[in-house]
Design goal:
Helices cover 38% and strands 11% of the residues. By secondary structure, it is an alpha/beta fold.
């Protein structure tokens, strides 16, 4: 079966790509250049796609900076730094990009229907960093309905299936899964800051570092 995999180049999406391969899928990767602060992640997405031997890797470009509304698309907004894990889970963070996963999943659906893919894989997670509203199970269920009702393929009784294999896993469990699948962590990227070296203090870096530390493992990425 063909599958479209949303690939940011981060720890989660890279694990999902390798999981889709392990599931026996012919993988088509899709990444997004939305003029995000951390466009450095696109370099990692390309490296991961090559390492996984995907059949095709598309990079779709559009500009969300014109609207802002997030610390990832508006440089005037400061990134949260050195927050505790409790603080991260207490509210929807300023790094939330309005409707981002809805936009991404819409592109992925079009790509899947055109290419004959039966699945769309993505690396959303509802346990660690569950503040994002578009990473939760009820949202995934609603988008599956959109996939069923909003396409010719869906109305014909063969809707594209949304697969979110990490949604109920902790970050440590995701790393353990990635280790079993052989994900090359040194090629991944999680930092929101947008520099060439990961900052180590933004929410994403801290979650990643804490998970590696909890497992007694060393993160192969260099940090500022």
């Amino acid at each position: 079966m063909k599958a479209v995999v949303l690939l940011s180049g981060g720890l989660d999406s890279s694990t999902v790509l390798y999981q889709a391969k392990a599931d026996g899928c012919e993988c088509l990767a899709i990444s997004f250049d939305y003029q995000q602060r951390h466009r450095r992640e696109l370099d990692s997405a390309a490296k991961i796609a090559r390492s996984a031997g995907v059949a095709e890797h598309q990079v779709v470009g559009f500009d969300l900076r014109r609207w802002g509304g997030s610390a990832l698309t508006d440089d005037r907004l400061d990134l949260p730094r050195q927050r505790s894990l409790a603080e991260m889970g207490s509210s929807i963070p300023i790094t939330y990009v309005p409707a981002r996963n809805t936009i991404f999943l819409s592109f992925a659906l079009a790509y899947a229907e055109i290419s004959g893919a039966g699945r769309v894989y993505l690396g959303v997670n509802a346990l660690d960093y569950s503040g994002y509203p578009d990473c939760r199970p009820d949202y995934m269920q609603a988008m599956q309905q959109v996939y069923r009702l909003g396409t010719k393929q869906g109305r014909s009784g063969e809707p594209v299936e949304i697969v979110a294999p990490l949604i109920d896993l902790k970050k440590t469990e995701i790393i353990q899964l990635g280790n079993r699948l052989g994900v090359p962590w040194e090629h991944t990227w999680s930092c929101y800051a947008g520099a060439e070296v990961a900052c180590g203090v933004c929410d994403s870096c801290q979650l990643r570092l804490a998970a590696f530390e909890e497992l007694g493992l060393k993160d192969p990425l260099p940090y500022a």
